[in-house]
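User: Predict the structure for this protein chain, please.
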Amino acid sequence: MLKDLVGDDGRVGRKIAAIERNIDRASRIARELLHFSREKEAALEPISINQVLTSALNLLQHQQLSSIVHLNLRDVPAVMGIPWKLEEVFVNLLMNSLDACGEGNRIEVTTSCAGNRVVVVIADTGHGIDQEQLGKVFDPFFTTREIGKGTGLGLSVCHNIVKQHGGDIELKSSKEKGTQVTVSFPEVADEN
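Assistant: Here is the predicted structure, written as structure tokens:
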């Protein structure tokens, strides 16, 4: 691939071949690490999504503007989950909202039930996302932030964790009117 760009210079060609081998090797190692980490994951257990959200907000209490986050947590059934993984999801989502907001904005976090699902809605009044970018927000390495301000992995990781928990995640946004992220999980079946 890269050899075609530089021509037939033997020394450059050898260096490029070495680079390509190292890229392939790094890719294989990354795949093996991901496979290994998935095998070692904790088992799902019944958890309170309200406790996970409260814990996530506590982790962000020293962030600038954390006071604009308001919890509206209703009594909802437990969901099956890995608490620290779901906490990671909500920390990421709340950080995105905080980054999109300024002093006069508000972030509302609401829990509710819809059918046999527990629903979490994080709605902010921040700067929003352009419509043409909405379809890419869960793609790895896609970011709306300026270079050096984000990796573009946050929403992709959130999407994967939510799916691993049997959940769904949806994002709606409009420029200058804010963003709403809806995450839902199956409630724990009643054993009685």
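The mean pLDDT is 80.
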